[in-house]
Amino acid sequence: MVSRNVRLWFLISLLLWVVTLFVPWAAFAQEAQQAAPPPPKIDSGDTAWMLTSSALVLMMTIPGLFLFYGGLVRRKNALGTIMHSFILAAVISIQWVLWGYSLAFGPDKAGLIGGLDWIGLTGVGLEPYPDYSATIPHQAFMIYQLMFAIITPALITGAFAERMKFSTFLVFMLLWATFIYDPLAHWVWGVKGWLRELGALDFAGGTVVHISSGISALAAAIIIGKRRGYGQEPMPPHNLPFSVIGASMLWVGWFGFNAGSALGAGSLATSAFVVTNTATAAAALAWMFAEWIAKGKPTVLGAASGAVAGLVAITPASGFVAPLPSIIIGVGAGVLCYTAGNLKTKLGYDDSLDVVGVHGVGGTWGAVATGLFASKAINEAGADGLFYGNPGLMKAQIIAVVATWVLAFVGTTIILKVLDVTMGLRVSEEEEIQGLDLAQHSESAYALDLPAYGEYARVGGASLQQPVEKTRPRTTP
After folding, report:
1. 227-250: pLDDT as tens digits
2. What is the DSSP string of 193-230?
3. Are residues 344 and 351 in contact, defined by beta-carbon separation less than 8 angstroms?
4. Average pLDDT over the chain, rounded to an integer
5. Where are the domains of the chain?
6. Which of 135, 282, 400, 472 is most buried as measured by Cβ atoms within 10 A of its Cβ?
7. Which CATH architecture has domain 44-426?
8. pLDDT tens-digit profile of 22-37?
């Protein structure tokens, strides 16, 4: 009886010891689990806004940019110019899925480039990725960034319009996207990218998109050379209504470009939306009045170009500045970009559609202006600028500008020099005189107006054959 009681008390004591030992740890684990942050959750409103913004940014390229550029060239080169922007949407879409996104935003390699961990979108799923997309699917962030990767090389095409071989163009753009755009995007926006770590601010692409395209355009204009007859014969735009329609679509689409860069539908997106519109309006007016004073009359093309310049300049600052500074940024863009466009003839290069003056100069001004006017009152994740007592931001902005200039100019020069030796950059003189539409694509944008081109009907396909046949006079039996 005694031994039975001893065993009973021993078992009770052992049970109490086990409870005493493990219950506090279980309670601690439960408490720790409750204290841990909840896993990222997809917000349907943010996701809807980001998908809408992605569509708006794609609309900036097709059809916005190709209409803007297509109307500015001569009639014989309209389709060739449109084709540049249109086909880039296809080329870069495939490049981005296969390796571009991984290089730009993949796990960091020494602050310079993303790794190939996400090649073919491996690991890029439908769940949020907190470093980039806390409330939207990772693929939504990826597709949004794709639209930036599409429009950036498309902007460069305006510098060499009317004279570059289409086959060389395709290879050039694929190499440019891989070796210039993707690394630069990682520097500025990628986790642990060296310019991001430095503290440089670029809300929506002043350096990544506009300085890179503008300075690459400068290198391309110099290396490819001037159009035949440039400076000796007039080369007026053939369809200004096209260009103004394109500029208008750029204005509308840019709200997805800038406000979409908030990566959510909230107060920051609203602020970016407001300052984007304000700066654009100010720049359009500034360019128009500058031209009016200098040349005696305002032009529709001048107002449209001014609007685009304002959109460019406010891009890096749109998530960091208040409405009043955005007016200053817009006015500065209108005046500076107008002046830069008028200097290209004196400087001796043929930038066909003023990519350098609008995007190179406008993007540089916007990056510097961000260093002046940025305020943490607008975006706590940003920094105060020089006018708010922080000269350090201006230093970071200048370093970012210089680094982008060097990468874009040197990288583009190397790529084009190699392609010039291996493939050739320019069409022949005969093809340039004929026009790239017929020479490179066997098509004409205005076949009904050009019955003399009937000889091309057999090689031009239905796009030429049917209209030409319809215009042939019928003979009576």
Report:
1. 999 989 999 999 999 999 999 999
2. -HHHHHT---SS-IIIIIIHHHHHHHHHHHHH-PPTTT
3. yes
4. 90
5. 44-426, 430-471
6. 400
7. Orthogonal Bundle (1.10)
8. 444 444 444 444 555 5
